[in-house]
Amino acid sequence: MTTTELNLPKSITRLYSKLDEKVLLQALQIALRRTIAQERKELKTVQARISKFERKYKKRFREFEKNLPPEGDYVIHEDYGEWSFLEEKAKLLSQDIADYERVYGGR
After folding, report:
1. Tens place of pLDDT per residue across the chain (107 aa)
2. Helices assigned H by DSSP within the chain
């Protein structure tokens, strides 16, 4: 086990002695469920934006990146910047969801 220190408002600390570990774990599970749902919703939005670029350029990001001309037009480089950001965001969201699900114990 790991010990974590939390800074809680006084109103909660007064209740803390009345709460047992089971109640706190249940609260954490509820929070994790909500967080997972929010992260999945955000990931779906990010993936939809990525799909628009895939349709526009008829290729996946890695292939697009490999063939990016060193001196392209403004639109291509703007798309590359946004698409690159979206790919990284999707990766981080997916990792976070997996981490949350490991803590929560499943879906």
Report:
1. 788 887 777 777 677 666 777 787 888 889 999 999 999 999 999 999 999 999 999 999 999 999 888 777 889 999 999 999 999 999 999 999 999 998 876 54
2. 10-16, 21-57, 61-66, 74-104
